[in-house]
Amino acid sequence: MTKTRLFYTAITILCIVCSIASLYIQNLYLLRVFILAAITAILALSVNILVGYTGQISLGHAGFFGIGAYMVGILNVNYHISFWLCMVIAVLFSGLMGLILGLPTTKLKGHFLGIATLGFGVIVNGVLNNWMQVTGGPQGIRDIESPTLFTIPLEYGNFFLGFIVACLSLLVLVIYLLIKSPIGRAWSCLKQDEITAYVTGIHVYRYKLLAFTISGSIAGFAGSLFAGYMTFISPDTFDLNQSISIITTVILGGSGTIAGPLLGTALLAFLNEWLRNFDELRLVIYGIILVAVIVFIPEGIYPFFKNKVISIFSKRKKASQPNTSIEPHAGKDAVNE
Amino acid sequence: MTELIQIIVNGMANGALYALIALGLTLIYGVMNLSNFAQGEFAMIGAFGTYYFMQMHMNYLMAMILSLIVAGLIGFVIHILAFHPLRKSEPLNMMLSSLGVSVLLVNLSQYLFSPNPKVVSNSFSEDSIQAFGVFLSQQRILIVIVSLILCGFTYWLLERSKFGRSVRAASLDPDTATLYGIPTNRIAFITFVFGVALTGIAGGLTAPIYNVYPTMGISLTLKAFVVVVLGGMGNIPGAIMGGFIVGLIESFSAGYVSTAFQDVIVFSALFLVLIIKPEGILSKVQGEKV
């Protein structure tokens, strides 16, 4: 136990150091990149609950992101409700939307689920773009109040970054606890095989709904943070490309792990900034890298390197032992046929 | 009354186009188990091909044939690089790979051809027929005719020919098909190129009606997916019917509600179908294998 305890202590200290260190970053450009990356990381974690732990697909997560951001924008600007109350309402409301989306879609699987969630994203984007009276249409909403936390004004990038890193760390903890709880075990069971889960007595439908609700509310939380940081929101941020880039982040990093989406976010944020050197070819190269990574490392970057490291160490230790592991695909095929 | 007929006629013309794109999509889905999000991009390639070949003073028909060949060739290369290596991998990975291909193709064409819309005009697009007070451009009639012919041809190919039998076998159960000596990998190749070329034709057909620009494929992909889900995955008559349904919903919502909410209404209809009958309107119910 001491080893794992040491590990957790190290991670906690790392999070605290990160939060404090963020107060001393002077470069405004860097601050912006870090804050947006942290928001993307929260989104990636929320998609990971669906894709990685429950075995569902969401191609419309920008919808939840947008709902969260617009809830804050509309309530704050039109009704002058304080930012924190708006945030709570936004999180609850996007969770509710997750539940509502889940009601019909939890009965779907695979490609159908993908297309249905994609439809959700398109519908939300269409409503944001065209419901002029409430959402302001393509012009979006301006002048959202910057939040103040215990008299600390978060409109300064440093404070906001510190706050958001703290939020991210807390969220990672919460998700970790959730995954280790009976709920997480039920999720991983129904990810492996729904029928088996059903036979075991897991209420598959309810657990999937729960996953949609939690995932939606976390994405809404990311949206409300985004609204608080940018103070200006418009529908372009919450389009199909956003949904796609969120799920790409998760898959590239490695779905079903906590470190995977975080690593994916960090790599893609870095890649995006680095590719700015290429101007117009930026997204072309992005597309090529995306395809290349999926073709060569389909399981994701984090599990790939983790397995590499493990295999290097285990080779030294167990060089004499015969290899008894069975290739997973061989067994799976034999069972299915 | 004439307004209603006009709306129906326009909807049918668009529907035929969606059916053609969805046909390629549903074929590829059936054989490769791939939701190809880059499908609309091949329509874009077909449209750009038609534009540039017509710039070289070829006639419309010649330009379309050449651009369908170009779309097929690009599809071939993409299949080798992006999809063939993933054939044993999870469907989700293939789907993401197709998303990457879509990003790549859209932005490459933006880089090469500039984002400005281009106008293709042929002899069909200027003339229109007027009957019972309804206007219909010859191009739209051409779209309906070509789409129906191609759908019919594909249906015949799948149901009656030897090649079609092996395609159906490969889509039912690739492993068993391989045991019976059917080259499933080659079938997947041919199906992908064929499906993509069909979409290329669809792109060439839309070019004179709508402008040609790099992001034109994205909305076509979305529509084609709605069509495929409505009609049932891997179901050709379903795809044709779904195409007409989507086209009609779209033109009715444009005519009576608003053009802005067109996509919202189409996708809401999709949700409705998914809630009531998740297997698609025309498909037979299949039990799940345990």
TrEMBL record, chain A:
TM region(s), chain numbering: 7-25, 31-51, 58-75, 81-103, 110-128, 159-179, 209-232, 244-271, 283-305
Major localization class: membrane
Subcellular location: Cell membrane
Pfam families, sorted: BPD_transp_2 (PF02653)
GO molecular function, one term: branched-chain amino acid transmembrane transporter activity
Domain of life, per lineage: Bacteria
Family annotation (InterPro entries): ABC_transp_permease, LivM-like
Any single Gene Ontology cellular-component annotation: plasma membrane
Assigned keywords, A-Z: Cell membrane, Membrane, Transmembrane, Transmembrane helix
Name listed for the protein in its UniProt record: Branched-chain amino acid ABC transporter permease
Phylogenetic lineage: Bacteria, Bacillati, Bacillota, Bacilli, Bacillales
From TrEMBL, chain B:
Compartments reported by the entry: Cell membrane
GO BP: any one term: amino acid transport
Keywords assigned: Amino-acid transport, Cell membrane, Membrane, Transmembrane, Transmembrane helix, Transport
Main location: membrane
CDD domains the record matches: TM_PBP1_LivH_like
Pfam families listed in its UniProt record: BPD_transp_2
GO CC entries: plasma membrane
Molecular function via GO: transmembrane transporter activity
Stretches that traverse the bilayer: 12-31, 61-82, 94-113, 141-158, 187-213, 225-249, 255-276
Topology versus the membrane: Multi-pass membrane protein
InterPro entries linked to this entry: ABC_BtuC-like, ABC_transp_permease, BCAA_transport_permease
Family: Belongs to the binding-protein-dependent transport system permease family. LivHM subfamily.
Name the UniProt record assigns to this protein: Branched-chain amino acid ABC transporter permease
Organism of derivation: Terrilactibacillus tamarindi
Source lineage: Bacteria, Bacillati, Bacillota, Bacilli, Bacillales
